[in-house]
Amino acid sequence: MKFLKILKKFSRPALAALLWTLAAGPAKGESGHRPRLLVGYSEAGFGKALASRASEAGEARFLSSSPIEILELDPDEDPEAAAARLRQSPGVLFVEVDEEVEIHAEPNDPDFELQWQFSSGWIELDAARAWDHVTAAPDLTVAVVDSGCDAAHPDLAPNLWENLEEIPDNGRDDDGNGYADDMRGWDFVNGDPDPDDDNGHGTMVFGILAASGNNRLGVTGVVWKARVMCLKNLGPDGRGRLSDSIAAIDYAVAHGAAILNLSWGFLREGAPSLALAATLTRAEEAGVLVVASAGNDGVENNPDGGIATYPASYPNANILAVASTDRDDALSPFSNYGGKSVDLAAPGEGLLTTYPGGKYQFFTGTSASAPLVAGAAALLWTQQPGLEAWEVAEALVAGVDPVPSLAGKMRSGGRIDLARPLGISNADPQNPGETPGGDTPPYLVSENGGGCILQAASPLVRTNGRAAASLVLIAGMAALWTTARAREP
Ligand SMILES: [Ca+2]
Ligand SMILES: [Ca+2]
Ligand SMILES: [Ca+2]
Ligand SMILES: [Ca+2]
Questions:
Q1: Per-residue pLDDT averaged across 372-376, rounded?
Q2: Minimum-distance ligand to the CA of 223?
Q3: Same-domain check for residues 79 and 215
Q4: Ligand 1 centroid vs 187 CA: distance in angstroms?
Q5: What does the mean pLDDT of the chain come to?
Q6: Is 288 helix (H, G, I), strand (E, B) or coil?
Q7: Which of 32, 40, 113, 127 is 20 to 30 A from 477, comparing alpha carbons?
Q8: What is the CATH number of the domain that holds 11?
Q9: Active site (catalytic) residues
Q10: How far away, in angstroms, is 375 Cα from ligand 1 center?
Q11: Is 347 in a helix, a strand, or coil?
């Protein structure tokens, strides 16, 4: 069984270390949630557990496609004691106490955004050249597993995934997937069919990935037209539980998501969660590409014995770990890095994107970098649908713009380029790609983050004289903005 293969990847000492860590770890989260355990079963043990839970009508929940149980305990029950008890049961392979994951949006260093003024010039993502060939990923579902999204945002609504097998608002689970009325994904935090965004993070990730492009409104994502599945695993404080995250990933895979964007994680010394590892390996076996933010701790992700952020640092070939760079292609000071564990970088400082309430906002962190890469993957996979997930990952890694200062800090030693993975030459002055529109672009007002007013700027002109890509780039507090306006391919 595949699941057992996953477990074999973890050595006995690693397993022992994990169990030791769990035994020594904190008994309860700070969130006031009822404590949960993640219980992994052997094949035989799983059958027995299923049978016994069915007769108990207890509060256990089995993940749809795996021998892992999310076991909810009584509020006053000590999870460590319960875990220790369960570990003695035959057929139980591992027991983990559920833990918190958190977003990678805000850097730890509060002043880094003020350093914009020191940068000059523009990096070259080659978006315009890429968009000359492909702008949309209409046949591909991308799951944003995050704090939910503002489904009513006019710049996002056209690109929402819909579960066509489900009839909304009738209180029934029409498609029999275990979730009633899950027309637009699921809120795993609150257990309801509306993955509304009470934090803003998921809406910002969505916008960078796939805000509707070429619609004369707001911003554009890397992908102009897509199907984005919003799954909510993070609450209003940007924190969530591993168990909800695992259930959300499972849901995405079960419903055909080709790409997962995971702009969150947890920093861990020693053995990572086996439950999450197994879930992501199942995603790998299902052919799903996972794009994960490298984390905002400013440290090296060193899964070989040191500290590392997960899920970014799992070794699976289908996982791309993304660091953040600034306008000068320098590694963001908050960004995690890793010569082996981080794959590539993408801009992650002050990216303008969608925000709940129909608004727009600047977004900073490796959380902002990951959806740029997920979007690049969606474009590539649309252009070359025959590729395997790991081949998409490798093409993006091989197609970076090399940056000397990033050498050794990440596997590719470079920053994402949108055109080169598509096989488009980087130097082709005869074909500068789509140019921004000359019509009056809309005015954008950001009501957060210091009340910046974005002035709709004249089309941005780069030093080489070519019209700029319509990717949004922000210059300090005075924002330059250029709208995407191009033909459909
Ligand atoms: Ca359903
Ligand atoms: Ca229904
Ligand atoms: Ca909700
Ligand atoms: Ca737009």
A1: 96
A2: 4
A3: no
A4: 12
A5: 78
A6: coil
A7: 127
A8: 3.30.70
A9: 146, 201, 367
A10: 27
A11: strand
